Amino acid sequence: xxxxxxxxxxxxxxxxxxxLNDRAVNEEAKRISQSTSRLTFRVIDGLMQYLRKKNRxxxxxxxxxxxxxxAEDQK
Length: 75
Fold this sequence. Notes:
75 residues; mainly alpha; Arc Repressor Mutant, subunit A; 3 helices; globular
């Protein structure tokens, strides 16, 4: 259910955009929010925190969000 949104969030961060303001991320989150009765920004925020805890993305005070690159042998 969230795989597409995961990819969109990571893509937005790689492109230098905030996932909360990215159109594609918001459209997918809106579709999910309609089936889960959660607010759209809560869907995005919850998934971003999940990705952060799984060490897929990271918040840096100076640079903002960034994608954590993992070597193939560490996956």
